[in-house]
Every structure is written in structure tokens, then in C-alpha cells.
């Protein structure tokens, strides 16, 4: 049985909101200490509700809630300020981050590192930073937190293929990559370890890698936001 909870002030982001009952919203939120939760914002759709203009996606919030069970009751929502709404392609990248978290992070599975990586990514999108490095950094941090991270070779040489069961495997000299494989060069591995994202080759190779990792984690399910991003960014 889920114990009854009362939380007064927790950093959080709204990942998704939908109408619930006559005048309320059902929220999916990502929190710092409690992971992903479902919260009922009672009366949030009423005209003049003070909650309605606060419960926005991609905005840092401070939330409070109480209750037990699958859906808790929202008791407090305040804007933490300082982050403009991402625009254009950056906004669609934000939707992609939200869908990724909703699909892969189970409810009530706390991961501080996921919240911190998400917060960093949203702020970078709002500042107008280059989109591909923002997405790749988040994907790698998110997947590592969920147990899908890789053991990066410390003294990389040659080229490596990604295999779902074995991780990164060194290609033999003269061995050619199979169609659709994610292949990483030693230079890309060094860039990832050093946090360098300026080489187009690094971005392309890591993108192929994270796509394979995410596909493996999703077990054949498709991300709607990825399809939209493909049309916008490719």
C-alpha cells in the first residue's frame, strides 16, 4: 500500500496536463526528490483559477501535494521564474524530452540526476543553444540514470559498434559496419568523455547511438515527437 504523503515545497516541472473531471487537470510532473508523479489540480480549469496560468510546461515550479495512491492532490503551485518558453524547433525538442521521460521513467522512481539533466536541458533550449548537443547530453544522462548507460573505453582506438547486449564492441581491422549499425570512432568517444560537442561527426555518431539505445529501451514503441523532430531537423 502506498503511504500517505504530504509535501510542501518541491522543485518540479509539468510534463503533461489534460482535462480531468469537470473543472480539474490531471498533471504528470517530474520532481527533484520524488521522481515522476500524477497530481490532480482541482478547479484548475475554472475561470479565474490562480493555478491555470502557473501550471505550464517548461517552466520551473515549486509544488506541494498530499494524499496516497496513484494520483495525489496538488495543494501548492508557484512559478520559480527565470526561464522563457522555448520557441520554434527548440519547443519541439522540449516536447521530445517530455515524451521520453513519460515513456521511460516509471512513476515514483526517484532520480535526482534525471531532474537535474532535464532542468539543464530546458534552460539550454530556452537560451537558444544549439539543439543537437542539448539533446545528446540529455539522452546520455537520462539513459545512464535508467541503467542503459555504456562503459566507455578508456583508451579508445579504431572504431566501435553498439550491440544491445554487449555494449560498445571494437571492430576488427578491415571489418565493415552492417547497415543501420551505430558506429563510433575513437575521436567521438574522446569527445563524449571530454564533453566536447563541436564536431559534426561526433553529433551524428552519438545521435545514431542514442537512437539505438532508446529504441532498445522502448522495445519497439515509437516516439511521436521524434517523428516531428525528424521532419524539422533533418
TrEMBL record:
Gene Ontology terms describing biological process: DNA recombination; double-strand break repair
Keyword DNA damage recorded: yes
InterPro entries: ARFGAP/RecO, DNA_rep/recomb_RecO_N, NA-bd_OB-fold, RecO, RecO_C
Residue span, DNA replication/recombination mediator RecO N-terminal domain: 10-80
Keyword DNA damage: yes
GO cellular component: bacterial nucleoid
UniProt cross-references to Pfam families, sorted A to Z: RecO_C (PF02565), RecO_N (PF11967)
Alphabetical UniProt keywords: DNA damage, DNA recombination, DNA repair
Protein's job: Involved in DNA repair and RecF pathway recombination.
Listed PANTHER family: DNA REPAIR PROTEIN RECO
Family: Belongs to the RecO family.
Protein name: DNA repair protein RecO
Organism ancestry: Bacteria, Pseudomonadati, Pseudomonadota, Hydrogenophilia, Hydrogenophilales
